[in-house]
């Protein structure tokens, strides 16, 4: 397995992967929009995992200079259980450490017990916090 940064040529494979893994996503999380936004801000923190030349996983990381965030950790269900997700998370954590991030956060839906268990196994803790969100009126991203 190889972990590397995302390339435009990965767009179709990543879109298909996310469509499978994140089947019930909201419109503001559509793949072309994420590709455009991430290419403008810290594109070096958009990672893909390749197995036998095929994209089988992703992880996006970001840092605001004080805290890091992890997003879009996805592994093709047909190859889950082989350590790909763990490798992607560790790779993203290392990149954030290199930027000086003292802490990294992520969000998981409360009903997704399997994913919560995955992160807990990697040393992540469920914090007694409430996540708040608000959709903002933004410009349209043309692809």
Describe the structure.
The chain is an alpha+beta fold and 143 residues long. The chain has four helices and five strands. A five-stranded mixed β-sheet has the order 1-2-3-4-5. The longest helix has 15 residues. The protein is globular and about 40 Å long. It starts with a strand and ends in a 22-residue tail after the last helix. The model has no long low-confidence stretch (mean pLDDT 93).
What structural class is derived from the secondary structure elements? Answer: alpha+beta
Dominant shape? globular
Task: Characterize the main sheet.
Answer: 5 strands, mixed
Task: Please state the average pLDDT score.
Answer: 93
Count the E strands. 5
Beta content: 15-25%
The H/E string reads EHHEEEHEH
The domain tally reads: 1
Name the strands of the widest sheet in spatial order. 1-2-3-4-5
The CATH topology label is: Aminopeptidase
CATH uppermost class: Alpha Beta
- Looking at CATH, the homologous superfamily is Gcn5-related N-acetyltransferase (GNAT)
